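FORM 7B: Structural annotation worksheet

SECTION A. Query
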Amino acid sequence: MRSFKGIILGACVLSVLACSQQKSQTDRFYTLKNKNGMELTVTNYGGRIVSVKLADKNGTVRDVVLGFDNVEDYYLENNSSDFGAAIGRYANRIDHGRFTLDGEEYQLPQNNFGHCLHGGPTGWQYQRYQVVEVNDNSIKLKMESPDGDNNFPGAVTAFVTYTLTDDNAIDIAYEATTTAPTIINMTNHSYFNLSGDPANHSICDDYLYLNASSFTPIDSTCMTSGEILPVAGTPMDFTTMHKIGDRIGEIDYVQIANAGGYDHNWVLDTGGDISKVAAELYCEDTGIDLKVYTDEPGIQVYTGNFLDGTLTGKGGVVYNKRAAICLETQHYPDSPNKPQWPSVVLRPGQTYTSHCVYAFSVTK
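SECTION B. Predicted structure
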């Protein structure tokens, strides 16, 4: 088992390296455009989506994701956030940061209720991706993650490609290889508010559909139990589109109480078929609709339960509770410790791939 001393030392080294890199290299925003005038802005720092701008039903351009005005605002020493990030190595939580692979136990940093969340305190959202290719409508980013990065085994080379299509979709393709057996589970952590007005519009007023008849329940630390339960007859049922706020306040239901709202993995009924809608989000005020497609088995829905007004984002807007919703396509949380669930193990000679599409449209 890797020692806590090693974890602390590794974290300190990564922190020093990150600060050094920030001084010696330039992070910047890259803006992609399509023929309809839609814009997608990405930064190489954390592989983050910074803004998504498109016209609403009245022709008013809306920025429908949370974020910051300047690249420096994303730096870990300035703001701790996952806004728009390409998460790695492991999206979501690993129970107490521990897992066993090929008989060896690994201890990861514990940065969330005693668990390892989103790859640890210096996960890829706080590291620099290399820009490999960029053009008018696409950008390809590369992450070189050394063996022992946040105590994960194996040196991993990963790529994230964002493509803005002419039918107003953001196509996200992930791939990765490793030098030694490891685990990987990548996702995008954009915070969506389709009103473009997070200061005044709660996502509780928006409509959500999930193509999922079951979910993975959690305890009070947001850790999955290993069960898969049906959504029928519970506040977890979004198989028919309805307002997010309809049942989000039902704290007598233990799953709502445990998360302070929704922060759960839904087990998709799509069977990995990316042509099937996995989720749909709709804002009546703007007419903007977002459909999510993926080849992943699950989707984490997070309703901004921990946004508390301490972060000030673009345009000086304070981000309060329920200011946005995340729709994170993924393998299930804590899969390394749940052998009955789809595997997240990546071995040398294999290539990890994952595909997600955020497709926007407007109803007038």
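SECTION C. Observations
The helical segments are 4-24, 254-259. The domain at 4-362 is CATH 2.70.98.10 (Beta-galactosidase; Chain A, domain 5).

SECTION D. Sign-off
Analyst initials: ____
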